[in-house]
Amino acid sequence: MSERKPPRFVPTLTTVLELPAEPAAAPQAEAPAADPAQAIAIGPQMPASETDAFALEEQLLHRVLQRVDLSLEERLSDTVSAVIQQQLDNMIPKLRDEIEAVLRELISEALARELSDNTGSTPAFGP
């Protein structure tokens, strides 16, 4: 079988990292907090203990949640803004109709009161 070259945009491994030997008597409580910048990827050929696998899973989960959190906040903000704008667009015609009806009623009442108060007097604009 002939070897295929991957496309140029596919990253390739250029450095092999050696994992330092850990003392077997190191208690778990002394382990520092998982820092994603200090994470070392292990290949499928390296056997990992259940504790190591759990720590790697926790690191991965933490990193994924950080990425999701940043995207989620932005997308939720955009989605909520769009829904609020849509609701406002639907409310504007109804609000205009209600305001118009209230203004017509107020103007009619004010005009009626003005006419009833001035029924016996001469108009202000002369004969």
Give an account of the 3D structure.
The chain is 54% helix and 0% strand. The protein has one helix and no strands. By secondary structure, it is mainly α. About 6% of the residues have low confidence. The longest helix is centred in the middle third of the chain and has 68 residues. It comes from Variovorax defluvii. This is DUF2486 family protein.
Task: Briefly summarize what is shown.
The chain is an all-alpha fold and 127 residues long. The chain contains one helix and no strands. The chain has one helix spanning 50-117.
Output the helix-strand order: H
Helical fraction equals 40-55%
Globular, elongated, flat, extended or rod-shaped: what is the shape?
rod-shaped
The proportion of strand residues reads under 5%
Radius of gyration: 37 Å
List the helices and strands and how they pair.
Layout: H1 50-117
Keywords:
127 residues, mainly alpha, rod-shaped
